[in-house]
Amino acid sequence: MKKDFIRDIQNSCEKAVELELSLDETREKYNNVLRNSNNKAQQKKIAFLESNLEQLTGVKKQLIEQNSSLEREVVIAERKVLARNERIQALEALLQDAQEKLTTQNQKFEAQLQAVRERLEQARRNQAQ
């Protein structure tokens, strides 16, 4: 899960960089067009480039927001995993302790049972005599 988040973040960053490069190229083309001509065909091209620039800016903002959101999700997921692992360790320690106590109690019970059996056997022998 963590690797997927990191991969998503890396992909988002790469897209953002590509979009920034594309944005710079578009701005450069826009400035060149403005300097070179004012005819209608180039005005259409300018309008197209401006529209493209606006779209790229919007996508860039969206990717930055998505990247921030994914980074927050990764931090939250890491905290949850850490808390879960700590809980597992605590439960394992409790289980080990309970098993040790049970083993000790079982040994005491077996010793008491053996003592009762020996007394019973002794009583039977005494009764048989």
List keywords for this structure.
129 residues; single chain; 2 helices; mainly alpha
Q: Can you describe what's shown?
A:
The chain is 96% helix and 0% strand. The chain has 129 residues and is an all-alpha fold. It has one domain (2-128). The longest helix is centred in the middle third of the chain and has 89 residues, at 40-128. The mean pLDDT is 89.
Brief summary of the model shown:
The protein contains 2 helices and no strands.
Give a count of the beta strands, DSSP E runs of length 2 or more: 0
Integer tally of domains: 1
The level of helicity is over 70%
Approximate strand percentage: under 5%
How many strands, which pairing sense, and closed or not: the largest β-sheet? none
What order do the SSEs take from the amino end to the carboxyl end, as H and E?
A: HH
**Regions with little confidence, pLDDT below 50 for 5+ residues:** none
How many distinct helices?
2
Based on secondary structure, the structural category is mainly alpha
Radius of gyration: 38 Å
Mean pLDDT: 89
Question: Gap between N and C termini, in Å?
Answer: 78 Å
Shape descriptor: rod-shaped
Secondary structure elements and their pairing?
Elements: H1 2-36, H2 40-128
